[in-house]
Amino acid sequence: MASPLISQYLPPDIDPTKVSIAYGRRALPKLNEELQSSDLLTRQKALMALCDMVHDPEHVYQAISIGFLNSLKLLLRDPDSTVRQKTIEVFHIMANHSVGREGFLKHHVILALSQNLDDPVLLCRKFLHKTYRSVAQVPRGADSIISSGLIPFLVKKVQEEDEEIQELILDTLYFCLQWDASQALQSKAVPILREKLNSLNENIRSKAAHTLMAICMPQDGKDQVWQYDVIPLLVKLLDDPNIEVKGNAAGALMFAAVTTAGGAVDRLPDLKSRSLIFLSDLRHLLLV
Q: What is the DSSP annotation of 31-50?
């Protein structure tokens, strides 16, 4: 039986080459007016033009100063999927500029975007998580994602999302958990990441191990990694054919093995064969 499918292609009548943009200083204010238009085609064309313009950080600065972010936040709830997709794409492009990230923090864009975590359109969710990843790469952005209470939702999405989006979420989690892993630990992130270490997708295996590296920085994270029997899986990944998987697995093992007491490696008797050999060598390196 056929099922409805939302196309990821733009409507055929949306041609960015035919968008008329006002001249000079009037260009951005005019686009801001068109974003608020009741006419769907006008909103779509304005967003297409805006996607091109915000590649320039000077235009990003001007757009924020005249109130674009508030207009764009309203469009996140637009019933038209193309409008939502292009709106979030604009946010993603702006997030690649420092002035855009600063504007997001000031105008609470991070929390506003969270209403689209369950958007039915794949591209909307993809651009959303690309935006979060860009914001999380700076300390203030990571702190904003954490303080907005989004970590439990991101952890849950690692189980549910398309694989390409899972990779983006794992990157975001890595950047955030370096600063504070408590919400992730309370959300049972460790067993979820343990499951991802077995993924057939090498990028997901690599990024799951990378995120575990951040989780293992605090003592509670180290304890949970041992509690959920993650260590043998990480040791197994040292034989992975992908070099990045190997490196991230070794890094996670290192952080799991180092304790706050000053570098001691405990619980070695719990491991066997190659696990023991590897951690014995690791202990030697840490204590030298």
A: HHHHHT-S-HHHHHHHHHHH
Q: How far apart are CA 136 and CA 172, in angstroms?
A: 6
Q: Sorting pLDDT into bands at 50, 70 and 90, what band is 273? A: very low
Contacts of 283 (CB under 8 A, 6+ apart): 257, 265, 268
Write out the two tokens for 56.
């320039």
The Cα–Cα gap between 190 and 212 comes to: 7
Name the DSSP letter for residue 9: S
The span from the CA of 153 to the CA of 202, in Å, is 24
C-beta of residue 109 within 8 angstroms of C-beta of residue 73: yes
| 6-46 pLDDT tens trace | 555 556 555 554 554 443 457 899 999 999 999 999 999 99
If 0-12 CB within 10 Å is exposed, 13-18 middle and 19+ buried, where does residue 7 land? exposed
Burial 82-115 (b: 16+ CB within 10 A, else e): bbbbbbbbbbbbbbbbebbbbbbeebebbebbbe
pTM of the model: 0.84
Spatial distance between the Cα atoms of 94 and 63, rounded to a whole number of angstroms: 10
Q: What is the pLDDT of residue 17?
A: 44
**Distance between CA 44 and CA 50 in Å, rounded?**
10
Other beta carbons less than 10 A from residue 177's beta carbon: 28
Q: Is the pLDDT of residue 149 over 80?
A: yes
Tokens in use for 142? 């990571």
Return d(Cα 26, Cα 68) in angstroms, integer.
14
Q: Can you say how many angstroms the Cα of residue 192 is from the centroid of all Cα atoms in its chain? A: 16
